[in-house]
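#struct-help
A.M.: can someone run this one for me? Single chain, 64 residues.
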Amino acid sequence: MIIKILAEGGSMAPGPALSQKLGPAGINIGQVISKVNDATKNFKGMKVPVEIDVDMGTKQFEVK
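D.P.: on it. Structure tokens below:
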């Protein structure tokens, strides 16, 4: 399952929209936010399109 979001570079925070998209996938939202912030830290102040590829079987995810 691929989840697409528009994140603030390096400063993504939890919110209702994010929870609605990630909650059904059953993955840790804190870990996702940490990885997205790390991946987008060079784009501070910009909106960055991010894809989160979730393996529903293993609950592993990759941030692109």
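A.M.: thanks! Residues 29-39 form the longest helix (11 residues).
D.P.: also worth noting: The helical segments are 16-22, 29-39.
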